[in-house]
Amino acid sequence: MGDRIESLIEAQIRAARENGEFDDLPGAGKPLPGHTEPYDEQWWLKEFLRREGISGTAMLPPSIQLARQVERLPDEIRGLPSEQRVRETVAELNRDILDYQVRPTPPFVPVRRIDVEAMVALWREALEARFAAARQEPAPEPRAKAKPRRWLRKRSEPPHDA
């Protein structure tokens, strides 16, 4: 039975080849992509992430993702537009941390909740620093008005090379 199935498949492939169904396939006659690179067992995963536009951090365990978010939080906070947005961002991260603390998953990384008031104070300091930097910058000097160039020649003017 196995030989019969195999011969049926072989016959279909042969018929398709004879009908030209394999002619002009994309990549025909070209080397396989990555054939010069050393073999990597995770090639399929890397290719999937690249093709789908997913960052590698999305594949990390939740505990490590949370730890990375906590590390990056001060930089993120400094760029937020309002105190309300700072509070919302920290509250959202604290909810995620609490969910992890209730149902931890390996690898077990200790992640503590963030002090909202400390992050608001950090945001205010960054805001004051931006305002101080803006006040210290000298006002741009007004540009001297340049004589407008005449891109079109008047008909009465002779050409310059004459």
Automatic annotation (TrEMBL):
<feature type="domain" description="DnaJ homologue subfamily C member 28 conserved">
    <location>
        <begin position="8"/>
        <end position="78"/>
    </location>
</feature>
<protein>
    <recommendedName>
        <fullName>DnaJ homologue subfamily C member 28 conserved domain-containing protein</fullName>
    </recommendedName>
</protein>
<dbReference type="InterPro" id="IPR018961">
    <property type="entry name" value="DnaJ_homolog_subfam-C_membr-28"/>
</dbReference>
<feature type="region of interest" description="Disordered">
    <location>
        <begin position="133"/>
        <end position="162"/>
    </location>
</feature>
<dbReference type="Pfam" id="PF09350">
    <property type="entry name" value="DJC28_CD"/>
</dbReference>
